[in-house]
Write a structure and sequence with these properties.
- By secondary structure, the protein is of the alpha+beta class.
- The protein has a domain of about 50 residues.
- It is built from one helix and five strands.
- The strands form two sheets. It has a three-stranded antiparallel beta sheet with strand order 2-1-3, with no helix packed on it.
- β4 and β5 form a beta hairpin.
Length: about 80
Amino acid sequence: MLYAIVDSEGLVVNSIEWDGSTEWKPPAGCSIVPQGNGGIGWSYVDGEFVPPVAPIEEAPEPTVTEALVTATTTEALAPSIEE
């Protein structure tokens, strides 16, 4: 059976295949729970596996060419003060 190794903060740090009866114990400060639908990097909270939160991706910096095209287009479309 597949088990999750959960650290003291509730983070799944590893997975193992274990028959449940062979003498073995998890590393100090960790516990084991049947794997269920979680995996490494997930959290184990109140008996449930919680997926990790996806990091927020920042928009990449524009290339010099993109910046110039944007600046030129903005200037070309902006109304002049003389109008």
